[in-house]
């Protein structure tokens, strides 16, 4: 059954029809509890009814017209985000056997993204999603295709870095999708807050699905076809998905041509401490990706690197979906601090698992370790949304993503250098250390990042 709200709406009957969850208001209130013929006894909900009640928050989200039309293209456009890093590392190491060089090239694009992404998001807020996302995606695809050309034609290494700089124009479809949910469910009423919490959980789960399927798809394409196949496919998916997402104009938030009053998001109270924590969390992700690819390569099992990384994303996706079913309670900042601390505790399992020298053992450990990721990101993005000035939502959320990208760049470059110097097993100390640093920063800055 749906959760009760302050306004006590009419009771809804949730049924499963043709594989879809359908909500209908019965003419007779007794029909909402009457069991079907041959079903469960009166007064005891059927198994399908209990399942429908648990999924009610997500059913209410998609009851809004036009939501499916932007969610599915957005998911397609974001899948390459989980492909580009692994695909680039495999492609570059196939041509130049150096993880340090591969990590540096990937880090260059990510560092550039930390500067370009907030600027592109500011343009999105001012001129609209469709007018900015499409040309930005075209520039990004040009950068990835240029990198393929430079590598295959054996161009000078400096040209690899130049091509990678163009990829910094990639539009943040995750922030745009979250902005659409916030536009559809505005205000501070209990129902709107709960809807945004569920939407953020759904978006985070989709992000994790992209980082679950993306690395696997990239690794399979690069090893089964040719080293450049992963980057080529990801560029085409990103461009096509962005075009389809931008075409759905009915749910697009209106552009705000005038700058919102007050300080910009970067100077808004509460945001800098959150960005610092996101920076540390990003370095965890970047280091773990490069080190895991190297760990698999050292054992002659590089094709399985994507599957192992997908285990971490799978744990996070499941945790995110379950987290979205819960009503947000208590102080969000305290909840965020606890989530980051849980992530640090679980990431401490990685160095222990790596010492066993087995991918089969590393995968379930990553699955467990990933279960704290989605709750951390969902709560963090909720805090960002609460403190970002009106009319600057894309910019505020993209700043959080930019901090993550900056951390990923640092983690990728540091992880690659540490692998070349000491091997992958020792390098797993880096993501664990980054998680502990993130927990420390979140705890120390908790009082300075209070959301309104």
UniProtKB/TrEMBL annotation:
Keyword Cell membrane: no
Presence of the UniProt keyword Transmembrane in the record: yes
Protein name in the entry: MFS transporter
Species in which this protein is naturally found: Streptomyces marincola
Region of interest (Disordered), ranges: 31-50
Membrane-crossing residue ranges in chain numbering: 70-93, 99-121, 274-296, 302-324, 336-354, 360-384, 396-419, 425-444
Keywords, in A-Z order: Membrane, Transmembrane, Transmembrane helix
Lineage: Bacteria, Bacillati, Actinomycetota, Actinomycetes, Kitasatosporales
Compositionally skewed regions (Low complexity) per UniProt: 31-43
InterPro entries: MFS, MFS_trans_sf
Gene Ontology MF term list: transmembrane transporter activity
